[in-house]
Amino acid sequence: DWEYAKAREPVIGDPDSPIQFVVITDFECPFCRTLHERLTERLKQRDERASLSILHFPVTSHRFARQAANAYECAQTRDARE
Questions:
Q1: What's the CA gap between 11 and 50, in Å, rounded?
Q2: Where are the beta strands (DSSP E) in 1-82?
């Protein structure tokens, strides 16, 4: 459901920007880490013309991926309330 994904709070950028990236990620995946680092750097260079939203998809073989995703979501919820 891309509408749900786009409705997620963007990590970087304006949610109404013309370019919207939705990344499906796992905190323990080394490839996801590399992609996140590269996308983050590129988006910073775009001056708010793009946004990045994150959807967590913890892989079952990654021991702590689910807990990391839950902790991240809890932190985002707490930050939004403060």
A1: 11
A2: 19-25, 50-56
What Å distances lie between residue 80 and 3, 37, 74, CA to CA? 21, 24, 10
Q: 1 exposed, middle or buried (CB, 10 Å; 0-12, 13-18, 19+)?
A: exposed
CA distance 69 to 19: 25
Residue pLDDT, tens place only, 26-37 = 999 999 999 988
Instruction: Write the CB contacts of 75 (distance below 8 Å, at least 6 apart in sequence).
Output: none
Examine the pLDDT at 8 and tell me if it is beyond 80.
no
pLDDT of residue 29: 93
Write down the pTM of the prediction.
Answer: 0.67
